[in-house]
Specification:
The protein has 112 residues and is of the alpha+beta class. 45% of the residues lie in helices and 24% in strands. It has one domain (7-111): YaeB-like fold. Helix 1 (12-29) packs antiparallel against helix 2.
Length: 112
Amino acid sequence: MQAPLLKYRILPTARIGIDELRSYVVRAFGWETWRQTSAQIQETIAQIRQFPGSGHVPAELEGFVDDNFRQALSGKNRIIYQVRDDTVFIHLVVDTRRDLQALLHRIVLRLM
């Protein structure tokens, strides 16, 4: 018997990343490529919900809040998430080529 999927919540920081990613992909490659990318991200989130422990701790976040942040790769994108109780919180969706450390600094500065 398969375990039920965890609930999930896409946080505002991840929504911003998805919007930026969509704008870039549509502008550079077109709507069909975005549809494929979006479907791949949704599939990866479904896999995270089913197997939340399968992701690994991103090097940039090692030692940060008890190492409970993980990442899963979805094509050329990273999905940074955290599992609390029965819910997966999607914190970031970002291109693998972006500097995650610099992005995290910008996010923290915006929050202050």
